[in-house]
User: What shape does this take?
Amino acid sequence: FLFDKALSAQTRDPSVWCCLAGHVAEKDIEKALSLLRRSLTLIPTAECLLAVIQLLHSIENRLTQDLSKVVATFLPDSPFPAKTEGTVLSLGSALEMVGLDDSFPAILRQALTQFPDSKPLWLASLSNGAGLSDYESAVAALPEDSDIWREYLIFLSNSNPEKCTEMWREVMKKGFSGTLSALYLQSVFTREGLKGVRDAFKELKSWNSVPECGYQAMLSIEKENSSPGQVFQMYSELVTSYSSLSNWREFLNFCREQLPEKIGDIMWKCKQLYSDSEIAEIL
Assistant: This one.
């Protein structure tokens, strides 16, 4: 019945073809493979290819050849279009599952012509053997996306450190770059040391409002490389800009361990800001 329905209607529903092929495979694997090939002829889409690969994986024990070799025979010379970016990413996972992940970059390139503003597709593309032109295309497509810039700058730090330094300064002047603060400060510290990163942090504050992650990154650097007095100053800046109970608790614990003479000052400041119950949480 399913066979007659599929052939008579020439259905464009991949699930019908895969269901039919799955039943046929129980008795005749070659006929099942023929049905799957016909489905891709009638439905040349990424969705159909994904369904075919998933079915082949589920009937792997009936195949007479290695699964990856069989799946490879179903891959088109030019990637099929997809209806959604989610299908493309699922197809990538399916190809990886059968050991054909090296086929995915070409599929991603095709998909990005359909979905040029897709952040998930660009990130997937950048993690699949991308070169300089791919990174430049990604930041051109999504010029204010901090995650895309993060990947580009990490790539440049390894391939072109001089250009990376120039790009960091330009990017960090932009309003969207706040979440990159921690990575930026660490990169400056690696290149220029403690004085360089202190100057960079000061400059960063003059460009934009530094997010809490930037203060925390600077604090971590100071903790590992500075005197308790300098760390105390950094904590003071942190709680001035981000006055949370957890930050004050961390500040107080630092003073208990390193500068007990400062505990009274910290407690006095807390009492100006918080209720008795909140102070109890800090303690």
Observations:
- The CA atoms of residues 223 and 231 lie 6 Å apart.
